[in-house]
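Sample intake sheet
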Amino acid sequence: MADDWQAAWQGTVDAVGGDFSGGVQSTAVDQIELGAVRKFLEPLELDCPLHYDAEAAKQAGYRNVLAPVAGISSTWLDSGLWRPGMGSRYPQAHPHIDIPRAREASMPEPPMPETTAAFATDIEIEYFEPAVVGDRLTVRGRTLISCLPRETRVGRGAFMVWEREVVNQDGVRVALLRNGGYSYVANEGPADAPAANGAAEESAADEPDEDLLAIRNVDPGDPPGVDWSQQRYWEDVNEGDAIPPVTINLTIARLVVEAGANRDFNQIHHNTPVSVATGAPDMYANNGFIQSWWERAVREYIGLGGRFKKTGPFRMRIFNTVGEAAVTSGAVKRKWVEDGEHLVEIEVQTEISRGTSVGPGPVVVSLPTRG
């Protein structure tokens, strides 16, 4: 029957609401280090002093150099790839073998059918105590919030959303995470591959040669033009105000640098043959990098005195593939006062040549007041 694949997900649907952490809490292998924050900023090119200047961070009310919020859902929770006593993560010389993570303990899974691929789709994060250099974070709980079987361009599977809590070394809540993903059986071939036709089928030998050496050695672009000494206040903000757009050029080199920076080494993000095998058109940016685009765009608007309260929910709609110029922009949707905080909601989205790739979705921040 055509619907048999959907029926196979019924056990997962029935498990919604269950906690599948098995009581396991996962603590990051390292404290948040200043060098790790610096590396995180490199592919993003965010020059905000809160993330490298301890004095500036403390003047803004933080305990130490502020860790970017885009790293809370993964990078600052990294469990490592290998530890003493573990077997080799590279047991064969095949170029496309992935790296198994160094998990401390396995967690139970809900009943679900076999799948061949997965990628992140949805993000919603509430922020509480800011994470700073020197903190060591732990993630606990793993509640299945929803399961929605769907057939998409890349295959048949289900969208699932999980809720987890992040705390610091003192047990103080740092964030509440709701991360969604799509697990599926991949179709054959890339989802966005162009239809074949005789006129378009030209051999590589007929195409003009690119001067790859000339392309590799280009002059650096201009530095960011943000004046961090200027602060935007809540009174300055009006509904409909646009935030300055941020453009991220997705080169292979940048995707490799950001994989090292945010510790997401899944080959779908830097290895085209593996990406295509999962149904994607090419290698593409990971969700941690995408979160950081939104963070940079909003941070450059709210200044040093603004604070992130919540990101999302938002959905990653199409792959942000290598070779694209991803432009993140937004506009103020509303402003209000709640429990003494002066809040602003900014509706953010990312656009590439093929349309809206991420969002739109809300980012809620607090801003200082002139009073």
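Comment: Residues 287-302 form the longest helix (16 residues). Strands lie at 26-27, 117-127, 138-151, 155-167, 173-186, 242-249, 307-315, 325-338, 341-352, 355-366.
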